[in-house]
Amino acid sequence: MSENLMNKEFIVLGISGSPRKDGNTDIVVKKTLEIISKLRKDVKTIFLRVADYEIKHCLGCRECMRLGECVIKDDDFNLVLDKLLKAHLIVIGAPVFWNSPPGVMKDFIDRTHGFYIDHTRLRDKKVGVISVAAESGFESHEDVLSWLRVYGAEIVRKLRVYAREKGEVLEKSEEISKVEKFAAFLAQSF
Questions:
Q1: H helix intervals, the chain
Q2: The overall pTM is greater than 0.85
Q3: Who is most buried in 66, 118, 168, 170, counting CB within 10 A?
Q4: Is the residue at 78 inside a domain?
């Protein structure tokens, strides 16, 4: 193995798409990053909450389809996007709101539409998807959160976490065990 590969630091980005700070989604995404960093000494983990950034709604102007990037420049979208583009592994989590991610996450997803003209832009990215819900709505939610596959990313694992009230996941040992297995799998995926 070359010295360059031995000294390489891999970036693992954890994105929480929850509007509720320190809720179950934040807890699970952070726990996943924590476990990966314990299993892999060659990683740098970054956690971000989409709700902490100002990300405007997509205008539907379709200029991104011509330019390959969003025309809105006066918000924080590109700050988050830059972190995503630099990551080797992306862990995306969001609560299930009526069978889909909440609006704060959907705004970010919609703004990546310009990538559609280059289906290989994220070809080398690995993605783990986390859906958090009380009891149902996982299927369509997972489809939306798997949007990066359209741009070439590989969805390597999906996790369904059952929890409703803030912090409830910490009281559910079976859910934490699922998170641990999910994180261990992701740590081996890149």
A1: 3-6, 24-39, 64-67, 77-86, 103-111, 138-145, 173-187
A2: yes
A3: 168
A4: yes
Looking up residue 171, the CATH number of its domain turns out to be: 3.40.50.360
Containing structural domain, residue 129: 9-187
**pLDDT score at 8:** 84
Distance CA 126, CA 186 (A): 9
Residue 180 lies in a domain: yes
Residue 2 within a domain? no
Instruction: Please give the tally of structural domains in the chain.
Output: 1
Mean predicted lDDT score pLDDT of the chain: 93
- CA of residue 65 relative to chain centroid, distance: 23
**CA distances from residue 32 to 46, 75, 90, 168, 188 in whole angstroms, order as listed:** 11, 28, 11, 16, 13
Q: Answer with the residue of higher pLDDT: 100 or 115.
A: 100
Tens-place pLDDT, residues 140-184: 888 888 898 888 899 999 999 999 999 999 999 999 999 999 999
Q: Identify whether 86 is part of a domain.
A: yes
